[in-house]
Automatic annotation (TrEMBL):
Keywords from the UniProt entry: ATP-binding, Hydrolase, Nucleotide-binding, Transport
Domain of life: Bacteria
The UniProt record lists the keyword NADP: no
Gene Ontology molecular function, alphabetical: ATP binding; ATP hydrolysis activity
Gene field: cmpD_3
PROSITE patterns in UniProt: ABC_TRANSPORTER_1 (PS00211), ABC_TRANSPORTER_2 (PS50893)
Domain ABC transporter: 5-238
Name of the molecule in the record: Bicarbonate transport ATP-binding protein CmpD
InterPro entries, A to Z: AAA+_ATPase, ABC_transporter-like_ATP-bd, ABC_transporter-like_CS, ABC_transporter_ATP-bind, P-loop_NTPase
Family named by the database record: Belongs to the ABC transporter superfamily.
The species this protein was found in: Cognatishimia activa
Any Pfam family the entry gives: ABC_tran
Segments passing through the bilayer: none
């Protein structure tokens, strides 16, 4: 697999009233085509900033973010995003919400083809029959499913998920993890997932990147090879426990609660 997303030596500081706030300091990350990279790290370390750089919503002070080797210089229609808050438009039906990017992205599907595509995605995530409902008529998990369809409707090659399941209860979240694997099998994309949930990171990611405390650098990378989609049972195996323990420990180092030397 060739690398689709490459982040090399990225440094970034926000300009604030109190002077520059260094947020990223030597970030390196490489996601192969079709890969799913889960990013974890202490609160406020710069995870969302990383997604903004990949999405082209801002440029780094130093270093480079490339997609297929081409520097990211601005927003691209080949990137889809979903956030913790689905932000669906209440005056549009679920179907019309999902179709929205096709009205905005140049060259997107139009008319019946657009509607068919949106209906297909909604059926893929189990929302068949809810196309004409308004967002407020759906549960939080269903709204997040619709938001996922909206992020995928224009067939982006990169999907950025910034804590999309963070506000959901544990059972709904686990349902959505499984849905994500089902969707990815049918709608291939290269994914970057920001999460605070270590179980989620090892269930969805084939690479888990731990960022250090702010300003963030790449502290630790865990590769997870799998030849089929996992089941929830896989989260209760010794190997899962070992992975979670390693990641939890890396987070403690990132938080400065233990030192690498002390843990060696
Ligand atoms: N536009 C901005 N201007 C100034 N400071 C900002 C801006 N956006 C984010 N920050 C600050 O940069 C730091 C990193 O923010 P960011 O949202 O990237 O972190 P995060 O790891 O995603 O946070 P969390 O884990 O809480 O979701 C935080 O201290 C935040 O307050």
């Amino acid at each position: 697999m060739t690398s689709l997303i490459d982040i090399k030596g990225v440094r970034h500081a926000y300009k604030t009233a109190n002077g520059p706030l260094p947020v990223l300091d030597g970030l390196n990350l490489s996601v192969p085509e079709g890969g799913f990279c889960a990013v974890v790290g202490p609160s406020g370390c710069g995870k969302s900033t990383l997604t903004r750089l990949v999405a082209g919503l801002m440029k780094p002070d130093e270093g480079e973010v490339t997609l297929h080797g081409e520097p990211v210089r601005g927003p691209r229609s080949t990137v889809g995003m979903a956030f913790q808050n689905p932000v669906l438009l209440e005056w549009r039906s679920i179907l019309k919400n999902v179709m929205l990017p096709l009205e905005i992205v140049p060259g997107g599907l139009k008319g019946k083809a657009a509607e068919d595509r949106a209906r297909y995605l909604l059926s893929l995530v189990g929302l068949e029959g809810f196309e004409d409902k308004r967002p407020s008529e759906l549960s939080g998990g269903m709204r997040q499913r619709a938001s996922l369809c909206r992020a995928l409707v224009h067939q982006p090659e990169v999907l950025i998920l910034d804590e999309p399941f963070g506000a959901l209860d544990a059972f709904t979240r686990e349902d959505l993890w499984q849905t994500m694997h089902e969707v990815k099998a049918k709608e291939p994309f290269t994914g970057v997932l920001i999460t605070h949930d270590l179980r989620e990171s090892i269930f969805l990611g084939d690479q888990v990147v731990v960022l250090s405390g702010r300003p963030a650098r790449t502290q630790y990378v865990m590769e997870i090879s799998r030849d089929k989609a996992p089941s929830l049972d896989d989260l209760y195996t010794p190997i899962a426990a070992e992975r979670l323990n390693t990641l939890r420990h890396q987070i403690e180092i990132a938080q400065g609660r233990v030192t690498e030397e002390a843990s060696a």
